[in-house]
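Annex B. Sample input.
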Amino acid sequence: WHPNQLLLNWPTGSFPDGRYTVLMEIGNGAKSVINTSDAINFMVDNSRPIANFTELRWRVVGGAWSAPLSLICPIIHRPLVNGNPADIEFAVSYQATADHLRSTSLSGGGCGGGVPTLQSALSTAQHWHTSAGDNAVANTAVFRLLGNQPQGAYSFHLHAASRAFNPAGGDGGFAADWNYDPVYNWVQPFLPVALVNG
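Annex B, continued. Sample output.
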């Protein structure tokens, strides 16, 4: 089985990334070339994006930001206000780059009792490439965690995807559909944060 209009099953992972030129030769029954197509250039990119967190700060809503926290097992001691845990915010800075960056998204996660919610503009937590040269992003997004959400384990997840694709459809999708947009190369680092009341 081959997808519609596919003539070449090319295992690109077996070759270095870079530019390749392909042409098709048409032969007769004696295997003599009787016609050759125009050359077509392909850029092969099997590299994964590089994405990482660059800084984490926190504050009580409306207060001053903390100094940057360690990005390895950070612990936040959420203060009590009038005996109740305070609403707090996180400033999460990150960067992502790729040879052909498609998109990035940043989200908050929890352990069942709620998640940090985005407070800054959506553009601080999401990016979609706008041109061939748009291959890097660096930003800071602000998330809020309400005081009535439990202490415990929270996290931030950064998803960065390459816009390189598999024209063979490799996943059973329809290769001739221009609106079909699977992701083949991505990374998803996460930043766990421990939150303790008091």
